Each structure stands twice: as structure tokens, then as C-alpha cells.
Model the fold of this input.
Amino acid sequence: MLVVGSKLLGYPVLSVHVGGEVARTLEPIIDPDGLKVIGYTLSGALIRDEIGNILDMSSVREFAPSGLIVDSTDEFVNREDVVRINQVMSLNFGLVGLKVVTEDKKTLGKVSDYTLDTESFMVYQLIVRRPALQSLIDPELTINRSQIVEVDDYKVVIKHENEKVEMRKSAKATDFTPNFVNPFAEPQFSQIHNQTPEPPDIE
Done:
């Protein structure tokens, strides 16, 4: 299933041990080598130095409409605790805002958002906002990860624009069917879980 990356900012992190929300996501930690979200920085009343302020995505038990579910706050880490997270954070890499160009140097716009696969947390698509004049015709493009040739600190290089770049119609968060009994399917969450899931918005 796909979910829009910006929808996971300020997203609840739920603990099975506590039985409720223990934190909220702040910023994604995106590994530019493979374009994968490997963690999120966190905020919340329970976030302290001795606990850690980073959620390692390998600790996420389930992605659900009600939040990212972990066993307990013991899953939170400091950046120095996980070598790869520390390495990626040292790069100060940010995907949103990068210029998108083709191999023949044509500028398509800038990354305004992206979609994630909720099972692997790989970036599946880039959502690109077009420059002012071009936006009158096609304000946004959706680019599949298969079209990406190179990523650096300043730009994303993709294959020729006419090959497989598609206009973005819409992108919205999609529900994920839990693969185990969700301990948070209590009355306060029932309204969310009883909704009829919308079909995934895959382009």
C-alpha cells in the first residue's frame, strides 16, 4: 500500500506496552542510497535523552490508520546507537525541495512530496511541482522510482521526461490491513478502523 510522505509527519506512535500514544513523528530520516525512510525523529512528553528520540523503522510492528505501532518506548534510540542512522543523519539529506532534472539537463521542477510503500518504507514515487510557466499546463508530475537515475544533495536525475513520467491526478493516504490482532482497536480507535478502506492511489 502507498501513503503520502507528508501524511506521516506528526503521525502518532503507539506502544503496545503502554496501550496508547507515546510520541509523534517529526522528520523522516531518508537514506539517499536507495531512497528509503529508515527512521523518524520524535517528539512527545515521554521523549527523553535516556530513552532516545528516534524511531528506527525496523522496530515498527505495524503501520495502521491509527499510528505506527511499536512494542514499547524501549524501541526508541539515539542516533549514535544505530550506525546507519547516524551516518545518514550526518549527510543532512532532504528529499523535499530537491530539483528534478532529466538526463538531458531539462528542469522538471522540485520535489514537493513523495509516496511510501508501507511495508518496506521505500520511496515509491516522487511528486514534483512544476515551474511557474509549466504549471499552467501540468502543475504536478508523479515520477516512479524506476525512472530515477541519480540522487545527490541538490538534485534528482531521471530518465528522459517522455519515457514514463506521468501527471499526478491525486495522492492520498491509504489504509493498511493489519497482519495481527491490533491491540488499539478499542472504542477510541473504532471509528477509524470501521471505515471502508479506499483503494490505493497507485499511478
